[in-house]
Amino acid sequence: MSESVSLLGKDLIGLEPLSRDQIVTILDTAEHFKDVSERKVKKVPVLRGKTIVNLFFEASTRTRISFEFAQKRLSADTVNIATSASSVVKGETLVDTARNLEAMRIDMVVMRHASSGAAGFLAERIPSNVVNAGDGRHEHPTQGLLDMLTIRDHLGRLEGLNVCIVGDVLHSRVARSNIFGLLKLGAHVAVSGPKTLLPVRMEELGVQVFPRVEEALEWADVINVLRLQLERMKAGYVPSLREYNRFYGITRARLDAAPRDILVLHPGPMNRGVEIDSDVADGPNQVILKQVTNGVAVRMAVLYLLAGGTPEIAHTVREVEET
Amino acid sequence: MIHRPLLIRGGRVVDPSQGVDEVLDLLLVNGAVSALSKNVGPAAEAREIDATGLVVTPGLIDPHVHLREPGQEHKETIASGARAAAAGGITSVCAMPNTDPPIDDPATVGFVVAEGRRVGAARVYPMGTISVGMAGEALTEFGEMVEAGAVAVTDDGHPVMDSGLMRLALEYAQAFGIPVVDHPEDLSLSRDGSMNEGLVSSRLGLKGKPNASEDIHIVRDILLAELTGGRIHLQHVSTRHGVEAIRRAKGQGVQVTAEAAPHHLLLTDEAVDGYRTEAKMNPPLRSPEDRDAVRQGLLDGTLDMVATDHAPHHYDEKEAAFDDAPNGVVGLETSLGLIHTHFVEKGLMDLGTMVERMSLAPARVFNLPGGTLKVGGPGDVTVFDPQAEWVVDPKLFLSKSRNTPFAGWKLKGKPRYTVVGGVVVWEAK
Description:
- The structure holds 2 protein chains of 2 kinds.
- By secondary structure, chain A is an alpha/beta fold.
- Chain A has 13 helices and 9 strands.
- Chain A starts with 19 loop residues before the first helix and ends with a helix.
- The mean pLDDT of chain A is 92.
- The longest helix of chain B has 18 residues, at 211-228.
- The mean pLDDT of chain B is 97.
- The chains are: A alpha/beta, B alpha/beta.
């Protein structure tokens, strides 16, 4: 693989700065990596010898594990650092932590951080590739990508689809990555939720706003249901989880009342009975576990491309490995 | 201490306090203005400065600076801040009391006054806090702090949320002839916000502070000034409705004065894009409509004066993710150049108005010596070159801190001599 700048640039900080073509390249490359996870020997040697640090300043189970599987299946060497184990608690700054890792000669950092902009901040200061695994309320680009891949898998396209993000958009990095990515690929994007949980001036980003979820369901081909964190109720954004479920919960009855079949996504972890009812979460229209599976493929694609790989070679690798 | 007389010859003297704008000689003797006229005769022992082609004004006054001492000397000290002021052509500053410990008693006021005198690079006028420990609960000893040298009271940075306490402050301050100075912000609307609430905050995923968080306290303070007959001074006004409310209140005779900061006059929240912590301050940079209203307010006098809200922070503190970085930008060494370049040079404001907004108005509102070159007044003078072009380079700042959003800006108008009490405290190399 070449050491020159990858098709994605040095880092993946968000979907907002990417072009349509770059996003399509990632999704297409992910297609090549999907079946690696379906084989008996779930490993290709494309990142052999690369060292990747998973630097998680916020608790995360599924994203961290998904990245770790992706890395291992690409044969990279990985180290996981979680806040409790890091020197951050001793007052070391983010820059110093990164520089220390850098001094141990790493190739990539996958970082999750509670502050919006933290991933870009790190990327500007170290030469390693940086992959944003979620920064504050800003972006969670690999989640946005895996959501898009999952929609494309099931509906064959993204262009022209009506995709509505339902719930706590204000605090959601998943929502922002979906909005930026879907708009670039020609989907129509809307948000729906209590006004207290929607960012201001969404219309100017090209996003429709549905204050009532019924209107959203009348419009949508796809909904992406966001987790409602308990803290939001404590902070007064919604009066109670019961009322939230009553007016914004995705229920079987609401889906049945919609004019067409709606594909249901949820980035997890789910609060069953709050933002999504169990008969939806386990029902026929949902692709929630498909998202999880696709997450590994998308992350493999991102890591591979950042390391300088090309979609064509990914294809070749697959052919070679299969023989 | 007796210093040599100082004779500043042949400069264009701009002094709105006496309607002067012409080429004159200015003689300072024993720390005071001794003569201002054409062809002042040679004075014995005097140092002469040839100010041909330069502008000579009453010393500029910045009514809103954070000198960080006592307690945060890694960001700034009274000495470094006063030198930075001098380098910016500023001869007097009002020092905010949100130090550690806060300036909330006569002893701490006295310390700042004494340290300012010892340094001597600029006159340092502390403000005391409104409430003990800036806790927003009980009034401080306004009278004793004024006796010790405080020129006003403010809980700047910790807005007074309790309207009842603000009423008491506006009533109690009247006996001592000082204004109550407020950082207008309703924290219940802005808490945890780190930038303006708008399209940029929605895009970046940063929590916003809506204009209303500022507007509500501006209107509240105006109503309380009207209720009490007290004098309110509103800091760093950044919103269009805020400007409009002040304009209306002034029309109705309410005793309200206000200030505008260079960053609110020249930047919008777009400057935050890319999570630029050097564009993080409170109140935040707002929309173009707000910026335009603040400009208009400064031009028509609704906003009486320019105040930098000079807020130094160590680079380690600003070298962080946006939410984790502190609020504030430095301003002492760029305000003259910025206002001259973007208002005077652009033909929006004449030099007399600039001097009024940057010297006379703050002198009047805070009852400070200066703001004038009348004979007998203090020998505080700013001499600047209106033609000199320069590029803002934070590495050259005398301030201990470098956190400016104006790095690399090309400006026209640069201080040449800064004179405090008849003594040249700073001159351009």
